[in-house]
Amino acid sequence: MKYSITIPAVLLFAVFVAGCKKDETTQPVPEVAPWDNGQSAEAVLGQSDLASTGARGTGQSSISNPWNLSVDGSGTLFVVDQSAHRVLRFDSATTKGNGANANGVLGQPNFTSTVWNYSVGGNIPSANGFETPVSVALDAAGTLYVVDQANGRVLRFNSAASKAIGASADGVLGWPDFTSNGFGTTQSKFFTPQAVAVDPSGNLFVADGSNHRVLRFNNAIAKANGANADGVLGQVDFTSNAKGTAADKMSNPYSLAVDKNGNLYVGERGNSRVTIFLNAASKANGAAADIVLGKADFADGSTPSSASSSSIYYPYQLAVDQNLNLYVADGPYNRVLVFYNAPSKKNGANADAVLGKKDFTSSSVTASGADNVGQPYGVAVHSATGKLFISDYSNSRVLRFQAKSKLHP
Asked: If pLDDT is split at 50, 70 and 90, which confidence band does 199 have?
């Protein structure tokens, strides 16, 4: 009787240890899940506390329309404040207290101005102004790329964390100079650009929404103004722009992210899905995606009828941490979905956690609080600390969350 109890216990322990060992082809299994469903935020920017919503406004501590986000390795956070036509910079955002002031601003000469293209009083594009900025992304050197959507361009700010208030951009893609604007379907132009992301090699990806494609600019920091793209996904060439639902087609790509291994994640508003292109910089023009989330297969482009752990309505922004966990800001469902080790997922896999809602089936906009988000237009993760930032558009704020654990090194 003594051995009949002891031996199974030993065997059970051995199975548990084996299950926790690192798989050579994937990321290791977490000891403790990094996130609880409906977990509360620890701090807020744009409001004085986690219970306040306040009026939308401009100023050094206010955020009018928080949109996309990006955070660098030092914890400097850039926030697109869309209707104020500006990008706010919060230094040491991983430790800032509730309602802290921004430390810098791009797109405006001060913290109270809201005019677009401010250096010429609006209307005419400039090097230091935006008209409807929607997305930001940082490379490893701290170069900031800003999608200036209404002007049909992407602006580049070198060493963005040290830029003076209202500083001019150092480069532009989409047009050969800072005073031209418009849209096009060519190798060098965009038609409603929606998002940007940069891979570890400095290659820039641009979601060209109305052209239903993603353009790639190799070594983007060295590109001349108005340079041609080096690659395209979603179309077979640089002059086609038909939308579609197959693995090699897109419908209004709206968000992007790139992980440490160079895998590209594309959120499609038109197909209500996220596609993954493994080792994206090496893909041929028009190559097919490798994985799809939000749908069981690549043929389904329908809008989901209700919130669930496997459905994605509109993926407004994406982020991936160092453990390859994917964060999807699912705007209309007022939540952020988390897929652990996303490149290992099967098509249509369930999300592993949800933030901003208590469970996977809740989706309504509710009152503000530490555990609620409404219309999350942005998400960014600081992997060194496990801090996650979510732009809560409905409540004019950016929330900061702390992960419970890290995966095994």
From this structure: very high
Query: Sign of torsion, CA 111 112 114 118?
Result: negative
Q: Is the pTM of the predicted complex or chain greater than 0.90?
A: yes
Output the CA–CA distances (angstroms, integers) from residue 307 to 336, 388, 394, in the order listed: 12, 22, 19
Confidence tier at 55 by pLDDT (50, 70, 90): low
| Non-local CB neighbours of 251 within 8 Å, separated by 6+ positions | 212, 243, 244, 245, 268, 269, 270, 271, 301
Work out the pLDDT band at 15, boundaries 50, 70, 90: very low
Mean pLDDT of 135-162: 98
3-state helix vs strand vs coil in the chain, percent to 5: 10, 30, 60
**DSSP assignment letter at 344:** G
Q: How many Å is the maximal CA-CA distance in the chain?
A: 88
Helix (H) or strand (E) holding 355: strand 353-355
Long-range Cβ contacts of 213-219 (<8 Å, 24+ apart): 213/241, 213/250, 213/253, 214/250, 214/253, 214/256, 214/264, 214/266, 215/190, 216/280, 216/281, 217/173, 218/281
Integer CA distances (angstroms), 387 to 135, 382, 402, in order:
20, 5, 5
Using alpha carbons, list the distances in angstroms from residue 122 to 129, 130, 309: 8, 9, 44
For residue 258, count other CB atoms closer than 10 A to its CB: 23
Q: Rounded to whole angstroms, how far apart are CA atoms 186 and 211?
A: 10
Distances (CA, A) of 99 to 72, 241, 248: 20, 43, 44
Over residues 40-55, the mean pLDDT reads: 90
Measured torsion, CA atoms of residues 248, 250, 254, 256, in degrees rounded to the nearest 10: 0
Task: Name every residue whose Cβ is closer than 8 Å to that of residue 14 and which is 6 or more positions away in sequence.
Answer: none
Cα–Cα nearest to 399, from 91, 51, 87, 133: 51
Residue 23 has pLDDT above 70, yes or no: no
**CA–CA distances in Å: residue 112 to residues 105, 165, 166, 214, 272:** 10, 12, 12, 35, 37
Could you tell me the pLDDT band of residue 409, with boundaries at 50, 70 and 90?
very low
Are the C-beta atoms of 74 and 161 separated by less than 8 Å?
yes
